[in-house]
Amino acid sequence: MTQHLFSAIQVGQLSLNHRVAMAPLTRSRAGQPGNVPTPMNVEYYRQRASAALIISEATQISQQGQGYAWTPGIHSQEQVRGWKAVSDAVHAEGGKMFLQLWHVGRVSHPIFQPHGGLPVAPSALPVPGKTFIIDADGNGVWGDVPVPQALSIDGIHAIIEDYRVAARNAMLAGMDGVEIHAGNGYLLDQFINSESNHRTDSYGGSSENRARFLLEVVQAVVAEVGAQRVSVRLTPMGRFMGMGDETPEATFGYIVRQLAPLNLAYLHLVEPAMVGTVVDDNYNPRWDAIIHQLRADYPGVLMLAGGYTRESAEQALASGRADIIAFGRPFIANPDLPARLQGDKALNAGDGNTFFGGGAGGYIDYPAMV
Ligand code: FNR
Prior knowledge:
By secondary structure, this protein is of the alpha/beta class. It is 31% helix and 17% strand. It has ten helices and 16 strands. It has helices at 39-47, 77-92, 153-172, 187-192, 207-225, 248-259, 285-297, 310-319, 329-333, 337-342, and strands at residues 9-11, 14-16, 20-22, 54-60, 97-102, 120-121, 130-134, 140-144, 149-150, 177-181, 230-234, 266-270, 274-275, 278-279, 302-305, 324-327. The strands form five sheets. It has an eight-stranded parallel beta sheet with strand order 3-16-15-12-11-10-5-4. The chain has a two-stranded antiparallel ribbon with strand order 1-2. β15 (302-305), α8 and β16 form a beta-alpha-beta unit. It is globular. It binds ligand FNR. Residues 23-26, 57-58, 100, 181, 183-184, 233, 270, 274, 277, 305-308, 327-330, 355 line the site of ligand FNR.
C-alpha cells in the first residue's frame, strides 16, 4: 500500500493517525531559575498537539549537558513537574510526545558548567562555532566557546548513567518516549565523527569504537524504559559545529545496522542538505546516496527531517525514502500545520528573530486557521 502523509502508522505502542511530526526545536524560553518548563511552554506545545508526534525541544540530561541560554532540563524534580504539565496538556488534546534528550558536550561555556568548569568532549578540540550564552546584563548573546576537556572513561560512564536517569524522569513526566539526540555536533555526534574524536582508547579510532558511546547510551536507555519508547536522531554527513567524518557511509551504516535489530520506536535522520537550521545549496549526490543506503539498512520506522514541503514529503513517503516526515520551521509558525497541509492551505511565515529566546511574541501568537 502506498504511504502518504495522511495515512496511519504504528510507532512502538502508539497508533499515529497521520505522518506529520513536529521536529525538535530549541526555543530558549524555559523558566528561570532552574530551566523549568512554564505555563507559556505548556501553551506552545498544546497549540501544536495535532502533530502526529511532537518531539520536544532538546532538553539537557544534566547541568553539564547544557550549552545554550534558557534551555529546559530533565534532571530536577521541578523540571519533571514542568514537563508533566506539558505532556498532560498534549495528551488532553489527543496528542503524543517524545522528549529529546540532550548533552551538548563541547558546545558549552563555563557559565553553564557545574563549578564553572570546562565543558567536556571526546578530545580537547574546540568547536569552530559559537553558542548562545547569557552576558553580565542577563541578555542572550552569541559567545565563543573554550577548549573543552577530554572525558575520562569514568566520565563517559557517568554520562551514560545521566541518560538513564533522564529517560526515567521523562517517563515520570508522562512522556510517550524519548529521542536520543545524537546529531548536530553535540556530545554523541562529537564521538561519532572522526573530525572531533581523536581518542586512542576503545571510544575512538575505528567507526565501531566511535559509535560505542552512543550504542551504550541506547542500551542503557532501552533497559530503563523499553525499546518501544526509544528513538535516536542522527545527522549523517553533518557539517554543523565542526562535524566531519572520513568514512561517513561506513560509520553511519554501522550505527544504523546496530540499531536496526533493537526494535526502537523509530530512527530519525536529518537530510544531509541541512547544516543546523539552514539548507546547504551546494547539492552533493552523496547526500541522497547515504540516505538510500541507511533506509535500506533500516527495516523499522524511519523519520526524515530537513527542508520538507507538502509535495516533497508526499514524494518521500510514496517512494519509501521515509515513513514519517518531521517539520521544524513550518511548525514554529503554524500551530495547526497538519490541517494546513491536508487542506493544501497557505502557511504563515516564521520570524527568525524570535526563534531563540524572548517571550510570547513569535512563540504562542502564530494564528491557526479560522
Ligand atoms: C532546530 N533543530 C533542532 N534539532 C534538534 O535535533 N534539536 C533541537 O533542539 C533543534 N532546535 C532547533 C531550533 C530551531 C529554531 C530550528 C530552526 C531548528 C533542527 C530541526 O529539528 C530540523 O531538523 C531543521 O529545522 C530542518 O527542518 P525544517 O525546519 O526544514 O522543517
